[in-house]
Automatic annotation (TrEMBL):
Protein name as it appears in the record: ATP-dependent RecD2 DNA helicase
Record-linked CDD domains: DEXSc_RecD-like, SF1_C_RecD
Molecular function, one GO term: DNA binding
Keyword match ATP-binding: yes
Organism (species): Xylocopilactobacillus apicola
UniProt superkingdom: Bacteria
Swiss-Prot/TrEMBL catalytic activity: ATP + H2O = ADP + phosphate + H(+)
Coiled-coil portions: none
GO biological process, one term: DNA recombination
Amino acid sequence: MEEKQKSVTGKVKKIIFRNLKDQFFIISVNIAEISFDFGQEEIVITGTMPGLAEGLTYKFIGSLTKHPKYGQQFKAQSYEIAAEPDDPSAVVKFLVSRELPGIGEKTAQKIVDKLGVNAVDEIINNPDSLNGFRINPERKKEIREKLTEDVELNKVLLAFSRFHISQAAAIDAYNLYGLEAINILNDNPYYFLGRVPRLSFNQIDQSCKLIDLDVSESERITGALKWVASEMINRSGSTLIETERVLRNTNWVLGENSGATVNEEFVEKCLNENDEDFFSFDKDFVTTQDYSNYENEIANSINQLNHPFEENDEILNSEITEFEKKTDLQLEHYQKKAITSAFKNNLSIITGGPGTGKTTIVRAIIEIFADLHHLNLQEQESEEDSGILLTAPTGKAAKSLSDKTKFPAATIHRLLKVRDVEDRNSETDLISPDLLIIDEMSLVDTGLFAQLLRSIKTKPTVIMLGDVDQLPSVGPGQVFKDLIDSDVIPTTTLQRNFRQDLGGNIINFANLINSGEIYDSMEDNYDDLKMISAKGEEIVPALEKIVKAEIAAGTPITELQILAPMYKNKGGIFEINDSIHQLVNPQKFKINGFAVGDKVIQLENVPEKDVYNGEIGIVQRVEQLHGRRITKVLFDQEHEISYEPDELNQLTLAYAISIHKAQGSEFKTVIVTMSGRFDTMLRRNLLYTAVTRARDHLYLVGDLTTFIRAAGLPSTIRLTGLVNKLQRRLDAKVEAEEFVKHVETKVLPKVKEKPETAEKKAYVLTTENYQLIDPMIGMEQIKP
Ligand SMILES: Nc1ncnc2c1ncn2[C@@H]1O[C@H](COP(=O)(O)OP(=O)(O)OP(=O)(O)O)[C@@H](O)[C@H]1O
């Protein structure tokens, strides 16, 4: 197979295109040597090639492809410097192209004049080589690191190309293991499974066969196990997977001729021999070490933070009365309880649906806290000065919290200055709040919550707010629900809907969804809530009609959102977007399917540009920059982001979006469409989340029996170990400190509005009930 790889050696004549973010290049090369018939002197080569520069000679390994528009091109899988550079001007160009700190064209020229054509090697190997140039020591270090990284990454790309493994996975492996990635690859590539996200068991298995690598069967089996367990966790959102199920899937993945049946003893043996740190494995459940650690960390921190205070009831009551006078509101019993609980405990939870007064309580808590601590909020230079920090997991949620409370709020990532947003073990800043308020807690996943708790230096008062009936977080776990179910943190459930104006009927309907009974309400039509029955082919035309009417009535497209559960099926997101796009913005000039004025959604986290997965924007204009078309998109009506042509795949049309993607956002008018009566993904919390995205107007469009059925199906369950860990730790603490009475009366929640239903009990994982719960729950869902 290796002989089938083609190669081209030649000097880079011109960089036609380069994407700074992922170092994707399109170049033209003067051919010096070629391993196949080509018949021309110049060839266009594409690929991820960090550090590549005009004028230098490289050997490219890859395959010949045919671009529909541009004809034959060579797709490089790897490349390496083929000849020692002999042209000083090429080395100057290379240094400039790397955008090294403090090195512009003039300095680069001076460096090459002094160090010669081997300047790059000199800089990497000799720390003193840059002495004599006006570059400070910090920058010198950065320059050496960047050039070393280029060289190392090239080596890793080359090694991975021999295994026919994608460049994207090679880059991930390099970021995790540096040059060591090459040794791991040559020794046991199965080691990467479950650790390097874009690698599958099949890929590695095929590669090992292709190059006939000598890897033991036990290493192969361990690789399969790790991959299966990680996939099951990521797809189902559960942090615990039934051992028996993992073993069954692993056997299936290994195939019939694996030569070994993977049973429990065999797994223990393999893990001991190969990769014992990866799993937490026992008779009943499997989880990865990461998730086991996150849950332990959370249980530990909660245990340490969780203490009651002796706060004076009289003072608190008079503060609440003062707030009521100021705001002209009469707080209801549970609102007052939630406030009191927030001041009498280090940790407290407030949960409730929309309009139940959560934001009002946050305002009350901030004002009372300021008053008790003699803070003048107007005079504080920054929120850190006041000791009060407000945070939420998404940009949208943080903005909405800050708009409603008139107090600054930041996303958790920004608050902690997380170094790598995808890595929950990534380094962060430490924070020292006195009062920490976390909103939209249901969106916080296990890893992120562990990261947040790990970053708190002090012992602040922490108040966690959210709506526990919504869908759980996109990432694995269901921290908010588990914290409530564990009963270790005082929790207040708000139930009264204070919104009697526009939107009031939407909230009442949402409450009916939670009770599972919407059958009698499906005929109801109000100013703010409308049910429109449509089947199959009728759905999209019905949506078009509503959109037309709403736009004619002045609803801005940013405030009009269609939500659907599926992408591909009839009446799915793709089809709706196509038709609504034609209807509201039928322009001919499009780039990658987008026209000026289009509503789009970002699909990836790109912290360098300050734009994150799920943010919705409007295409503003297209500008020419050095011959490239740059698309400008305005997010949140205030921050504009530029997209290179090949970055446009980070965007998709957003006239319709998935319900998962809409978590944490609200819109003035929401149109929810559902069809497919027998789809088990359509469950209560999915419908509830969709409906509660609407502020003023809600339309339900589709087969109305689908909505009735969805409301009737209990919410999806995730299996986690957190409830048990939280309760076990509390018990241990209680025993150790002989604290039983005190804790029972003060720490355990006095406020418990909702009686524990049989259903709720069943969600708490015990050794008795685990067999009754399907660990593949949620696996059937499209990954959000
Ligand atoms: N005790 C009360 N009496 C009268 N009105 C109230 C009371 N509490 C809150 N409200 C009003 O009810 C409305 C909803 O309250 P609030 O915004 O605090 O709820 P929320 O739970 O944060 O809702 P959402 O999540 O939808 O923003 C607001 O207009 C608020 O002023």
